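INFO worker-7 received task bundle
INFO bundle size: 2
INFO processing item 0
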Amino acid sequence: QVQLVESGGGLVQPGESLRLSCIVTGTNANFYTMAWYRQAPGKQRTFVASKTNSGATDYADTVKGRFTISRDVVKNSVDLQMNSLNVDDTGVYYCSANSLFWGRGTQVTVSS
């Protein structure tokens, strides 16, 4: 059974950083394009970042230069380093594998 479990969310102030992690079990994460999405309160889920199994990355325009997606082959995980956070980054962050498998999400709140 494939499972994705996100962690690392929390409450931070504008300008601070967080690092999210998504641990994959039941399969090898390197087989998939791994991605992060987020859902702000009252809005639809939107794309944040992705990393293909060949290493290509893609980012939403709103996070380019601030967020970095990376894989950890040993942990079988994908991380999202988020710097210079602002209030618009608030939401539930979800991890996905090929948009087929999804985690339950981790809450990120940016507030002063």
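INFO item 0 finished
INFO processing item 1
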Amino acid sequence: EVQLQASGGGLVQPGGSLRLSCAASGFSFDDYAIGWFRQAPGKEREVVSCINPDDRSTYFSDSVKGRFTITSDSRKKIVYLRMSGLKPEDTAVYYCAADGSYNLIHALITGNYNPPLHEWQYWGQGTLVTVSS
């Protein structure tokens, strides 16, 4: 059974940092892309960042580029999202997802990932991040 466990959310002041973790189990970690998504109240879910653990190819949305980093630990089967320079507009429930489809992984490797064109296979529960003073 595929399981994705997101953790690390909390309350942080603007400008602060936070690290989210996504612990994966039930599938071959290096054969799947892992993505972080978020959904703010009243807004649609949006992709934040993705990684292909096999070759460390990554994607970042324009809204977080330069502030967030994504890394993977294949031994522990965990993907980390390090968030810095947090803004109130980063407040949302953050979810991690996994997908092993060739098209997605190929898109990440070639730098052609287009979020609206892809529905991810597996989802974990969310972790709430609140950025407020």
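INFO item 1 finished
INFO post-check item 1: The mean pLDDT is 95.
INFO post-check item 1: The first strand starts at residue 3 and ends at 7.
INFO worker-7 idle
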